[in-house]
Amino acid sequence: MVTISMLWLPIVGSAVLVFFASAIFHMVLPFHKSDYKGLPDEEGFRAALNKNPPSAGQYVVPYCPDMKEMGSDAMKAKLNQGPNAVMIIRAPGLFNMGGTLGRWFLVCLVTSATIAAAVCSILPVGADYITVFRPVAIAGFMAYGYGNMAHSIWFGRPWSITFKDLFDAAVYGCVTAGMFGWKWPHA
Hints:
This protein is mainly alpha-helical.
């Protein structure tokens, strides 16, 4: 029987590989450069927000505190008039890239450990590369990709961005599967 402790190398190795693959996708290749757009009057928007600055958090415009109000004529008019937005407001100050990258690596590590926990109970010691690769690749794709679809469904995120994220997830799943297949324990 395979235990998680036997999979420490593919767990850490795949987390490192996914971390670097994501860095290449987001910082080197032009693949994700079009994911964000600037507002037509960014300074006017910033000035309007700074009149009564919101605290860091997630906001929706127009805001509807109760689902009963969603059907009201006033809310329908606001929604039809627009703009409609979901915004994440961060705290003022410089973006902490080091802390963010550290948290992303932790997510990669926990994802690989979770995949290891799932497959170690179904795959035997000595399983061949492709037998390990298939379920790990599927689990990796699901772990890194499926959550992104909810943002397009519920929050209006452009599907083009979600499809790019799903491509990323497929690569991350295959990278994870490759490491697990390569370093799977043998007798």
